[in-house]
Design brief:
The chain contains 6 helices and 2 strands, in the order ααααββαα. It is mainly alpha-helical.
Length: 156
C-alpha cells in the first residue's frame, strides 16, 4: 500500500473550507464565528446560566482562554444576548438575524452533503466524533503533564 496522507490533512482542509463557506454568510450580517456558535448554543438550549454558556464556549475552543467574559459582554453590548431571570438568552433582534441565517447555512450544508450516501455520512460523523474525543483527551493529558512538569521544575 502506498503512502497515505494523514487524516489531519483532510480534516483540516475540510474544516477550513467549510469555515470559509460559513464566514461568507456570517460576514453578510456582521456576526463573528464565536458569536454565531454562542447563539447556536442558546437557540438549541434556551436561556443558559452565564457559567453554562461559558463552559460550552470553552469546550468548543471558540475563544482564547480567558476570553469568554469579553465575548459575552460584547454580545450583550451588541444586543445579541440579554440577561434574563434564567440566565442569558438571545434577544428578539438576534433571533430575527439568526433564524434566516441558520436556514441559509442548512441549505449550504445540504448542498455540500448532496450525493454522499447516508451510510458514508454516518460513518464520517462517527469517525470524526471518535477522533475529536481522542484528541481532546490527549490535549487534556498534555496539559496535565505540562502542569506537572512545571510544578516539578518549580520544586526542584
Amino acid at each position: 500500500m502506498g503512502h497515505m496522507e494523514p487524516l489531519t490533512r483532510y480534516v483540516g482542509k475540510a474544516e477550513r473550507t467549510l469555515q470559509a463557506l460559513l464566514q461568507t454568510q456570517l460576514q453578510q450580517v456582521g456576526v463573528a464565528f464565536p458569536e454565531w456558535a454562542a447563539l447556536t448554543f442558546l437557540r438549541n438550549a434556551g436561556p443558559l446560566k452565564r457559567s453554562q454558556l461559558g463552559e460550552a464556549i470553552r469546550n468548543g475552543r471558540l475563544v482564547e482562554a480567558g476570553g469568554v467574559d469579553s465575548l459575552l459582554d460584547a454580545m450583550i453590548d451588541k444586543g445579541l444576548i440579554a440577561q434574563v431571570p434564567d440566565g442569558l438568552a438571545m434577544t428578539s433582534a438576534a433571533k430575527s438575524l439568526y433564524d434566516p441565517l441558520r436556514s441559509r447555512v442548512m441549505e449550504i450544508t445540504a448542498l455540500v452533503e448532496k450525493g454522499v450516501p447516508e451510510d458514508d455520512l454516518a460513518t464520517t460523523r462517527q469517525t470524526l466524533a471518535f477522533v475529536t474525543e481522542r484528541a481532546g483527551k490527549l490535549l487534556t493529558d498534555l496539559k496535565i503533564q505540562e502542569s506537572t512538569d512545571k510544578h516539578t521544575t518549580a520544586i526542584s
